[in-house]
Amino acid sequence: MIHEQVEYLRPAFNTPSLEDVQDYFTTRDFPGEEGEVFFFYYQGMGWTNENGSPIRDWRAAASRWLWNLEN
Question: Is the pTM here over 0.90, yes or no?
Answer without folding.
Answer: no
